Amino acid sequence: MKFHRMAVAGWMLATVASLAVAQDEETRAKAESERPADKPGWVVVEETWWYPLRFESAEALESARYHFRRNEEKAAATEVRKAMSWLKYAAGHAMPITREKLNSAMAELSAVATDLDAGAITDAARMDSALAAASHALAEWHYFKAKESLGKDEAGYAAQHLEAAAEHLRHAADSAHYEYGPDTISLFEQVDENGRLASEQRTVDNNLLGKHLDGIEMAVKELGETLKSASANVAASPPKSSPKSTTTRPAESPGWVIVEEDWWHPLRYDFLDALQRARIHYRAQEQKKASDEIEKAVTWLKYAENHAEADTASDLSTARAELNDFSEALQSGQPVAAKSLDAAFARASAALAKHHHFRASKALAVSDLKTAAIHLMAAADHVRAAAHSANHEYGPEFSTIYDRYAPYGHWDETIEFTPDQIASNLTAIEQELAKLAEKLRSPR
Known about the structure:
- Helix 7 (155-176) runs parallel beside helix 9 and helix 14 (369-390) runs parallel beside helix 16.
- A two-stranded antiparallel sheet has the order 1-2.
- By secondary structure, the protein is mainly α.
- The longest helix is centred in the N-terminal third of the chain and has 28 residues, at 124-151.
- The protein has helices spanning 3-11, 19-32, 56-69, 73-91, 96-117, 124-151, 155-176, 182-199, 206-231, 270-283, 287-305, 310-331, 338-365, 369-390, 396-405, 419-441; strands spanning 42-46, 256-260.
């Protein structure tokens, strides 16, 4: 797999994630089932929430391999943990046989990430084996989701899942140094074309989808046998257990996904990354690509909105609607002023900073210092991004937070947290948010 394939995949998300489709699917999901009850330690999200981000796992796996080959172990570990989050998400609503494979791949990636942080991995074969297994498990998951969608007569979603399955099969094959035959390569190209049709809300032939479904199934099985044989020659580390939620898992309900609350932690900067890429594409006059990245950012706003307290949820909803308007304008080629776009980015980043500040305060209240610090760091990063977009200069006390917790975005597990220090930092962020809110209210 090449990096340009991911760019093409991102381009194809434009229409799929349109506000109209999101609203229709939201109505459908709520109509067919009730939202599971919230429980501490668990996150409940709509199943369709994830569609604009469905290629992110493949990007993370490819980036992990890229950084590993450059001897950038800590950067590789960060990308591995992002991929683990998407494996955890998929396992949250997978069939039992696929869930077992997803969990197994997740356990091996967890061991790999720990060893990468410690500088203990020198065997490229083990790294490739772990990445290939993860991609293959995700490809199988997408295959079954495509089959499920086709059974519900949802051809567009079936086409998108098949497209994602093909992308993961390519990455798994690259990691396993496996070459598909010409028929399979041709199949992947046809699947990609159907994905394009679906992204443009054009009709997809159900009979052709059925044929592609059979072809992807064969490709999943074929590669699975190869990986099974290869894994016997690669020594895997024993899986390291991760802390489990202290409450029982909420009851399952069709149309909803349930995952442990900490699944999100490795992805906490993805909103800001999406906005930064949107800004780069906008300045390069690549309006459609800028629109695609804004749609990804909107997805994260929606996620936060569903788990925010009332006041912040209102701010997030307003920011989401504003970014949707800009995304649609850019997609249709309408002129968008840079000043207006920067202001919208600032308001959205500030709303997410407020959300993370609340979550940090809540964690601190129950003495969960690590979770408090993780959300505090995310709040600080979103304030910094908002300040940059709004041309706001923050004070030196705010800047020291980065040196204390995670300079340059890398989380250090050896950091010791104290309640007083976290409380003091939260106060500094709250004060900065108030100054920023005043700046955003003032005429520009």
